[in-house]
Structure prediction request, 501 residues.
Amino acid sequence: MKLLDDYPFFVVLMGLSCIAMLIPMLHAIRIEDWLTARTFFYNSMLLGIITSIVGVASRKQDKGTSAGTHLITMLGAYVILPIFLAMPFAHLVKSITFFQAYFEMLSSLTTTGATLFDDPKSISEPLHLWRALVGWLGGFMILVVAMAIFAPLNMGGFEIYALQRHRKAALSQIQKAEVTDRINKFAGQIFPVYLLLTTVLSLVLIVLGERSLVAVSHAMAVLSTSGISPVGGLSGAQGGMMVEAALFLFLFFAVSRNTFLPGREQESWRTIKHDKEITQALLCVCLIPLLLFIRHWTGAIEINDQADSLSAFQSFWGSMFTVLSFLTTTGFESQLWATSQSWSGLNTPGLIFIGLAALGGGVATTAGGIKLLRVYALYKHGLREMERLSYPSSVGGAGQRGRSIRREGAFIAWIFLMVFVMTLAMIMLLLSLTGLNFVEALSFAVAGLSTCGPLIYISIEGAASYAQLSDAAKSILCVAMILGRLETVAVIALFNPNYWR
Prediction:
């Protein structure tokens, strides 16, 4: 780690990308796909040479510690890094252009999971592994960046708990602590846990009957919330309901950072039960499937009178898993999801899943969206305002921390919500100019801003596909994915940081 202190963060990311290319190369060697193995090896060597040259030129230079420097580095990583990651794709898949390969890799790096390959068999297994691996590394990168860069800057949802009297201290903190030290510290803390959870889930899926490639890819897709699958989702999986149960448990790591790093702000696992993000997620996972179940159950009675207990249970489970999957912006659809629809003969409105994906998961997790903590702040502020309508002279409780959430926290959350909505409207308008109708523009825009690529397959009736989009629409989605991953407010801060502080 000390050796990496001398190099800029972007150079380190290039070096990690170079090393990561060796993993699909080894898999290609195992299945004797020599063309793919050579392609990944040559590209790894080329990227290694470029990284070495840039590293020697930039070693021990003054990297600066301003907020703009860190955010520009991340913006540059999402814009430039997919160019190198797309080289193997562009060489091996002759049916796509380099820009389409760039779109595929940017989608993976931002953990969006939007793919141009509707048929999983159209590309080889090493390329599927490469997509899943890039998404997994992108999830790890955003975890480190959230804790090392966004937290001291009071961005990415951390601003909800930033007290008014601590704002000046928070501003000076970014200048006192070297970003490289923070990145090394949190990378060393997060990566062992991140790798261990992925390994455990992979082994569980293998024991339950999944092939090794599918198990590893789905494990990486769940931990990074990328939703990338080499078999087109859980519909091509073999483990059945037990596999979904295992994935369901691990999806909760995208609900709150306290499930991933307990004890950072609190002292024990006992505080998880008081976590507001987990409480909101449990409410969504229980309440929304219950309402869908009642709706479907009513339809089953009216249509075919097949309200047997097994079908009812399968319908409820399919709704629970799918709701949590889209709430965490993973986008896996339960194998039993179709059961609830065929059971009742009714279609579930795609607007529900658009709202879930836009809501998003927890702060400092791999999930995208608005984030549950911001929604909680607005909810508490709304309750307090309604209480003041009845009792204008009442005093709100919950201590200084609770008052901060209802005041400054709710104010900043409302600003982010408005910026998110305006950005969504702008992306929708631009997509509509490319020929998409209102529903398609809304679904694609939310999928990009919430980093939930599979959203379009469940929210749009008929055959929806990213491959059918024009290059102009893909370019707009590229911008949306970057804005959704870095969050719009953070990008705006690049242009006017003092105002947004």
